[in-house]
Write a structure and sequence with these properties.
The structure is a single chain. The protein has a single domain, classed as Growth Hormone, Chain: A (Up-down Bundle). The chain is built from 27 helices and three strands. Helix 10 runs antiparallel to helix 14. The chain is globular, with a radius of gyration of 22 Å.
Length: 510
């Protein structure tokens, strides 16, 4: 297809298919017990991973993590800075180094998940990041803190791909859009948990921010224990059966092991789908810039520039993430009926329009803007898991989904450090009562950063492909059994050209 014709189809293919939205309760009832258990264990693993990450941002100054653990850092940037006598910009490196190394974990645990199953790589991954979160609470120097966060980044990087595949690949096709939106909101739920426990724990016992990290490390171990008692996903078992039934031979015609066949097929698979993989990385770069640019430094903006109290900062972040929970679930649900790209584009435009309401108010009314801004940010994110799943080759799903997500994270990893460093170039005059506090105009930098990100992501989504209903996994497994998994790569077609997509999908925008 010529470039001109393709660009025209970017607009014509945005038209909704005219499908009547199904009752979400009815969609959830389609899940059997095993599918429900798979979804819940993935949701809680992703939530607690985010908890760990955001525990830093709430305490950056006092100290000087996939999502509960990540937010344990982001919510404590100020507190951590005080412990290690470091500036906000220094402590945000604990966030940056975590994001930079996540792609390593995505590759390692993604390949493991596609080769050895969704179960044990998932369990090992959770145990790894839980242990590192606990060790972070015992750090006594800034160097130890950075090393723990770096290793935690590797562990955190592996969790997303395995969570998405565990939660969605066995789920009924019609329910996947709704489940995708709910799953992604584990990230916002992790932020809420980190904020709530930070308020209840950090200043109410002698160990300060460290106790929050110990709690954030203990809870994921319960999820890992739960996953041990659940079986392997049926989709992976079907693909594994296809691999065993297929003829796995090298170029000389000699039979090779299934593990070697998987490894040998990665290179031709990347060669075949490199354009789509690059697109997914560019897309996830924009999404990660949007999330981290709007969230990571926001508590610091509230406490430093707006001089909000710790309690008011926590309440504001909780309100904003309530909006995120609602937005992600709703937009993920409606994307099954109005299309993935159109749904994302609508909330991107709305979010860009709400930037002033998110950053300009100087009193409690800013909570309204925070609520609706995060509704839009996480509304767009609610479509991401299912959009990635539909575009990824079936038998390399964990690898492609996790790697695209985390390479995007790698590129956007310096978001909070960039904002913090640039913000310090715009000092504000201090009040007579707060002369000892150095205040900076973080809001100005965040507004410009978010505006650029919204424009970039809007262009990427508008120009990109879409596969609203990927073919059934059972059909994929049957095809693999019939054709065999050979050394020339995956049999399942990732959307490489619009013409291929139109031939293979029931409902699809190329």
């Amino acid at each position: 297809m010529k470039i001109g014709k393709y660009l025209v189809t970017r607009f014509t293919t945005l038209a909704p298919p005219g499908v009547v939205p199904a009752n979400p309760i009815k969609l959830l009832r389609m899940l059997n017990r095993q599918q429900t258990a798979f979804f819940l264990v993935a949701f809680f693993a992703w939530t607690l991973d985010a908890f760990d990450f955001f525990s830093v941002t709430l305490n950056i100054i006092e100290i000087g993590k996939d999502a509960f653990d990540f937010f344990s850092v982001t919510l404590n940037v100020i507190e951590i800075g005080k412990t290690f006598y470091k500036s906000v910009a220094h402590i945000t490196w604990g966030i940056t180094v975590t994001l930079m190394l996540r792609s390593v974990g995505a590759i390692v645990f993604g390949i493991a998940g596609d080769r050895f199953g969704r179960k044990w790589p998932f369990v090992i991954n959770i145990a790894f990041y839980a242990t590192l979160e606990i060790l972070t609470g015992f750090c006594t120097t800034y160097g130890q803190f950075i090393v723990c966060r770096a290793l935690f980044g590797v562990a955190m990087g592996g969790i997303y791909g395995n969570c998405a595949t565990t939660a969605l690949e066995d789920a009924p096709e019609d329910a996947r859009g709704l489940l995708s939106g709910i799953l992604q909101q584990g990230y916002a739920m992790g932020y809420l948990l980190a904020a709530a426990f930070n308020m209840a724990i950090t200043h109410n016992q002698p160990y300060g921010w460290r106790a929050l990290f110990w709690l954030a490390g203990f809870l994921p171990l319960l999820v890992a224990l739960w996953r041990i008692f659940l079986p392997e996903t049926k989709t992976f078992l079907s693909i594994e059966e296809a691999r065993k039934a297929g003829k796995t031979k090298d170029e000389a015609g000699h039979e090779v092991s299934a593990a070697q066949a998987v490894i040998d097929s990665i290179r031709p698979t990347l060669k075949k789908y490199w354009m789509t993989l690059i697109y997914l990385i560019l897309m996830m770069t924009g999404f990660n810039f949007l999330a981290h640019g709007s969230q990571d430094l926001y508590p610091t903006f509230l406490s430093n520039q707006l001089q909000f109290s710790t309690g008011l900062v926590t309440i504001t972040t909780i309100v904003s993430n309530c909006g995120a929970l609602i937005g992600g679930s709703l937009i993920g649900y409606f994307s099954s009926f109005f299309g993935r790209r159109l749904s994302i584009i609508i909330v991107l435009i709305a979010g860009a329009a709400l930037i002033p309401a998110y950053l300009l108010p100087r009193n409690k009314t800013i909570m309204i803007g925070a609520f609706f801004q995060q509704l839009c940010v996480q509304g767009a994110w609610g479509v991401v898991p299912i959009h990635l799943i539909e575009l990824a080759p079936d038998e390399f799903r964990s690898f492609v989904v996790g790697t695209a997500y985390q390479l995007g994270n790698l590129i956007s990893s310096a978001s909070s450090t960039i904002e913090a460093s640039l913000g310090q170039r715009f000092p504000l005059e201090s009040d007579s009562e707060t002369t000892a506090i150095h205040r900076f105009d973080y809001g100005k930098v965040m507004a410009i950063f978010l505006a650029c990100t919204y424009v970039y992501l809007l262009i990427i989504i508008l120009l990109g492909p879409e596969k609203r209903y990927a073919k059934n996994d059972k059909d994929t497994a049957t095809e693999l059994i019939n054709k065999g998994v050979k050394n020339d790569g995956a049999q399942s077609k990732l959307l490489a050209t619009p013409e291929d997509g139109q031939k293979k999908q029931t409902l699809e925008n190329a």
